[in-house]
């Protein structure tokens, strides 16, 4: 039996693409193991699938001063030792890494044991963890054409991001019943990321009186960010987050307002959902969401509104323009070459295993 180790963690974005690969890997008869941190979000997400989970010590390499910068290198070294032992015991045929700092010791240990390693970079430019992992990689998957120039020649493959297939099988009638919406107005889905976005939430809520004249709005506003004063507003539904019903909400949705995390926008691409991206500003990140959003804008998949320019009038105008031109964006997304990400990545995995 072929054996694969999946790794990646720290955020859900470093785990969900691995989860998207599970059904196909099982179909092909792979014995699947997962290496993550002792108690990271990846542990909770993976264990529900019955996949053997192995925790290792994990640190973080920061670009800013922190007392933990003095202790985390020892955690990373411990994690490297633990990864080496696990790989020696498990004897995998291949390792697939979705990134995050916990993956670095696994990738390095894999190369040390002569195991082929495939890594996936979600953002336009590689993050620090994947930069450290690149020399140990056999192949590097990426989401954006522009990323190819940032990766070692001969290793890089444009694959897109694996998308959970259940998102493609939603039922809009179930969503209408769940939301108590009518079928006579189009639906906007607002996604601010798992923690929500104060700026996006405030801007959307500020234009609700005007917006609800023409649209219905589903607002995923983030943990602790529900506005109780709007709970009974007709045509407006707000949730901290949605899990099981998300596929149905997508099926009902006509246009999406979203942050520009790589996995989130790749899901919108796969679902052919016209979208207005409001990327996390450079002051709050390394600027990767801005680069992601601008790439999708250049390819005709998205409209982009940077947070610094966000106000109620600008947002309302952008929403109306997006809806009026939605078919143009849908057609551009249908022409994308990144529709078969799972097949492309599975073929890569198979090619290094059977080499």
UniProtKB/TrEMBL annotation:
PANTHER family attached to this UniProt entry: UDP-N-ACETYLGLUCOSAMINE--N-ACETYLMURAMYL-(PENTAPEPTIDE) PYROPHOSPHORYL-UNDECAPRENOL N-ACETYLGLUCOSAMINE TRANSFERASE (PTHR21015:SF27), UDP-N-ACETYLGLUCOSAMINE--N-ACETYLMURAMYL-(PENTAPEPTIDE) PYROPHOSPHORYL-UNDECAPRENOL N-ACETYLGLUCOSAMINE TRANSFERASE 1 (PTHR21015)
Localisation per UniProt entry: Cell membrane
Domain of life (superkingdom): Bacteria
Function summary: Cell wall formation. Catalyzes the transfer of a GlcNAc subunit on undecaprenyl-pyrophosphoryl-MurNAc-pentapeptide (lipid intermediate I) to form undecaprenyl-pyrophosphoryl-MurNAc-(pentapeptide)GlcNAc (lipid intermediate II).
Assigned keywords, A-Z: Cell cycle, Cell division, Cell membrane, Cell shape, Cell wall biogenesis/degradation, Glycosyltransferase, Membrane, Peptidoglycan synthesis, Transferase
Membrane topology type: Peripheral membrane protein
UniProt-listed NCBIfam families: murG (TIGR01133), PRK12446.1 (NF009102)
Pathway in which this enzyme or protein is active: Cell wall biogenesis; peptidoglycan biosynthesis
One Gene Ontology cellular component: plasma membrane
Family: Belongs to the glycosyltransferase 28 family. MurG subfamily.
Residue span, Glycosyl transferase family 28 C-terminal domain: 187-343
Residue sites binding UDP-N-acetyl-alpha-D-glucosamine per the record: 11-13, 164, 194, 289
One Pfam family in the UniProt entry: Glyco_tran_28_C
The enzyme's E.C. designation: 2.4.1.227
An example Gene Ontology molecular-function term: undecaprenyldiphospho-muramoylpentapeptide beta-N-acetylglucosaminyltransferase activity
Gene (name only): murG
Reaction(s) catalysed by this chain's protein: di-trans,octa-cis-undecaprenyl diphospho-N-acetyl-alpha-D-muramoyl-L-alanyl-D-glutamyl-meso-2,6-diaminopimeloyl-D-alanyl-D-alanine + UDP-N-acetyl-alpha-D-glucosamine = di-trans,octa-cis-undecaprenyl diphospho-[N-acetyl-alpha-D-glucosaminyl-(1->4)]-N-acetyl-alpha-D-muramoyl-L-alanyl-D-glutamyl-meso-2,6-diaminopimeloyl-D-alanyl-D-alanine + UDP + H(+)
Entry keyword Membrane: yes
HAMAP family on file: MurG
InterPro entries noted in UniProt: GlcNAc_MurG, Glyco_trans_28_C, GlycoTrans_28_N
Protein name: UDP-N-acetylglucosamine--N-acetylmuramyl-(pentapeptide) pyrophosphoryl-undecaprenol N-acetylglucosamine transferase
């Amino acid at each position: 039996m072929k054996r694969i180790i999946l790794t990646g963690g720290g955020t859900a974005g470093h785990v969900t693409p691995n989860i998207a690969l599970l059904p196909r890997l099982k179909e092909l008869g792979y014995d699947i193991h997962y290496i993550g941190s002792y108690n990271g979000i990846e542990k909770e997400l993976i264990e529900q699938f019955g996949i053997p989970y192995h925790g290792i010590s994990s640190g973080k390499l920061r670009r800013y001063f922190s007392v933990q910068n003095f202790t985390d290198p020892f955690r990373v070294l411990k994690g490297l030792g633990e990864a080496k032992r696990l790989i020696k015991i498990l004897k995998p045929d291949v390792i697939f890494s979705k990134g995050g700092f916990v993956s670095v010791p696994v990738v390095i240990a894999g190369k040390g044991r002569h195991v082929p390693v495939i890594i996936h970079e979600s953002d336009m430019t590689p993050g620090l963890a994947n930069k450290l992992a690149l020399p140990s990689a056999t192949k590097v998957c990426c989401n954006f054409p522009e990323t190819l120039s940032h990766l070692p020649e001969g290793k890089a493959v444009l694959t897109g991001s694996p998308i959970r297939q259940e998102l493609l099988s939603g039922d809009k009638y179930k969503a209408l019943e769940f939301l108590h919406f009518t079928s006579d107005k189009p639906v906007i889905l607002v996604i601010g990321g798992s923690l929500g976005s104060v700026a996006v939430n405030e801007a959307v809520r500020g234009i609700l009186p005007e917006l609800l004249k023409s649209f219905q709005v589903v607002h995923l506003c983030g943990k602790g960010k529900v506005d109780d004063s709007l709970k009974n507003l007709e045509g407006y539904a707000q949730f901290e987050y949605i899990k099981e019903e998300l596929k149905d909400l997508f099926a009902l949705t006509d246009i999406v307002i979203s942050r520009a995390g790589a996995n989130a926008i790749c899901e919108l691409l796969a679902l052919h959902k016209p979208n207005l991206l409001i990327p996390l500003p450079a002051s709050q990140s390394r600027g990767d969401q801005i680069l992601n959003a601008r790439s999708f804008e250049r390819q005709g998949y998205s409209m982009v509104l940077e947070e610094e320019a966000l106000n109620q009038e600008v947002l309302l105008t952008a929403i109306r323009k997006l809806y009026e031109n939605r078919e143009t964006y849908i057609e551009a997304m249908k022409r994308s070459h990144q529709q078969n990400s799972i097949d492309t990545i599975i073929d890569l995995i198979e090619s290094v295993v059977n080499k």
